Structures are given as C-alpha cells and as structure tokens.
Structure of IS110 family transposase ISRta3:
Amino acid sequence: MNATTYGLDVAKHVFQMYWVDNQTGEIANRRFRRDELVAFLAQRPAGRVALEACGSAHWWARKIQALGHEVVLLHAKFIRPFVQTNKTDAADARAIWTAVQQPGMRTVAAKTEDQQAMLGLHRMRSPLIKFRTMQVNQLRGLLYEFGVSFRAGRAAGLAEMRARMAELEDALPGTMFSSLRDQLRRIDGIDQDIDQLEKQISGWHKQEAACQAIAAVPGIGRLTATALVATIGDAKTFRSGREFASFLGLVPRQSGTGGKTHLGPISRRGDPYLRTLLIHGARSVMCHAKVPTPWQKAILERRPANVAAVALANKMARTAWAILAHGGTYDRHHVSARPA
C-alpha cells in the first residue's frame, strides 16, 4: 500500500492538514494546534508530508522528519494555481496536497540548523553594511556643504576625517562637530558588529568541507561560499548546474510563441543577495586575473563587460553545483562533456 500523502498549511498557532486515507478513501481536512499536530503525526504511519516553503517551514521539516515521515517543501508560486476557491487555510492545505502529486513538481531542499544559522548571519550582516555605507555617504554630503571634501573610498575617507579632526573643529559649528564625533562612534560600533559576524562566518567556513571545496573556484570567497552552501541545501535537489543557475536568476528570461523563442535580460529570480555576491566575484576575476582563460577572452570580445560578468557568474554557479553534487574538487583545466 502506498504511503499517505498529507498537505500541511503551517502558521504560528493554527495548522491545517488535508489528506485522503488510502484504505477507506475518506477525505480529511482538519485543523490542529501545535502540540496536537506533533502528537497526531507521531501516531501516524510513515507518510509524505508536503509544506509550503514559508516561515518556519525548514524547522517543521526537520521536526516531521524526526517523526519518521518524508517531507517535501514546495515554492508558494507552484501552489497558488491549485487554490480552487477563496484563500483559506483549508483551501491552501488541499492545494498543497494537490500540487505535490503533480509530475515533475519542483521542490525546495530542507535546510539544516547550521545552514539556517549561517543564512541568519548573512542576513544580519547585509543591512549593517548598507547602513554603514549610508552613514559614511551622509557624512561626506553634510561636510561638503561646509566646503570640506575627502578622498574616495570608505576606509581612506574615514581615516582622513579622523586625521583632520582639529581642522574640522575650527571649520564647523560646535553642534555639527559634536554630531560628527557621535556619527564616527556609531560607524566604529557598526564596524565592530560586522567584524564579529564575519569572524563567525569564517569559523563555519573553515570547518565546513563543502565551503572549502567551492572556495577554490576563482571568484568565490568565504562570504560567497558560505552563503551558497547555506542557500543550496542539498545540491542534488537540482537536476543540473543550469537548473541551479536558473534558480539564482542568472539565465536569460525566455518568452516564446508560435514556435519562436526570444531571450531577454536575466530573469533575476531567486536570492538577490547570493546573485549579487556571485556577480561581484565574477567582476573581480575579470578585473584582476593575470592570465584570463580563453573562454573569458572570447566572451569579452563579443559581449559588453556587464554581460560577460553575469555569464561568468553563471559559470561559477554551475561549477559550484557540480562540485557539491558530485563531491569533486575544482579543476581549472576540466573540460565538460555532454553525456552520451
């Protein structure tokens, strides 16, 4: 007898589950509280539980897997077409149950606790970087209104500001100078918070073999390696490197009708943070490579620099997927061959 498939709609306190009993054919669509849901699944025979990949879904995936069930996470956009009526918890649970049984349905890999924690560190670091940049740019603009300018670059500009504090004290009103010192102290505090987060990221990078393996790829450093490993979950969830690149939005958007296909700009789907890291890494490789590869030379000859950078980011993502999915190491001279 096939295992029972459940469609589970999760929330903070109330959970809705839809299933069809394999033996009796009875249709059930029940509401549970958190403790009731765990107790119910613990008593049921091993089955397949489908959830929408939303908030707390990865925690619930680990929890339900520990109870002996198979867990399938689905993207919300693949579930919405199966909601037949108004959006309710019961309708969502039934839609999840219907969607997971469709042939070729794409799934989301459940993340481990360490992967979720690492993504959390990256999410905390990202706004700190943005806020620090805003603070420095604001200082430059405000001081320029008083006729004071500084060298380009964050580190060089801040160093010059601190070196010219005596000059600034004479050139600025007292309230402005006092606020300048407070702003610089805030920037120092943000720098310390960023350094602390990056130390934790570096620690995980050193102990995670997968991160070290893909860090050998040119353009992938510790930030990109840790973010990529934490985002991808299980690399074997993706059937190919191209599917992973498509997941990151690094492939052209397709539009076709009447047998004709038009390729537009990149789709920009998926995680913009990881896509940005890969593209920045690709730009760094193109700008600082002492001996560009023949592939890089060829694409730069026929495409603009920005297009070439995105193409190289796509290639880096595919290479990283191949290393993670097949457990290999980076080989600069590797030549891919189409399977027979």
User: Anything to note?
Assistant: Residues 199 and 305 are 33 Å apart (CA to CA). The mean pLDDT is 92.
